[in-house]
Amino acid sequence: MNSQIHIRKLPGTLVVRAGGAVLGESDAALELTEGTLPPVIYFPRDDLAMAFLDGSDRRSSCPRKGEAEYFTIALNSGELADAGWSYPAPLAEATRIAGHVAFDTVRVTVERV
């Protein structure tokens, strides 16, 4: 598998929603592709309602991106455990995603508006 990372700014405005709540809207979202894996969209933290995101104890490590920290999304209808993640100090190939958060698109909706 070719695991080279490519990052590009997405055109237009994207919104992220969970449980009916808008978590954020951005015209500065980034799309990260890595080898044959599906693309992942990263939202700048400044464009998110970070009050919905509670830090989790979960951590994971990627040899190309570095160590990820996770977030549980707190909603009136309940919690979505570890549904968001971020690389606070990404490795050289992924530095553009520093200060950004990605979401599990099985439980969270990301769409262009």
TrEMBL record:
Q: This protein's superkingdom?
A: Bacteria
One Pfam family assigned to this protein is NTP_transf_9
Gene3D superfamilies, from UniProt? Domain of unknown function (DUF427)
Q: Which residues cross the membrane?
A: none
Which protein is depicted?
DUF427 domain-containing protein
Q: Which residues form the DUF427 domain?
A: 15-104
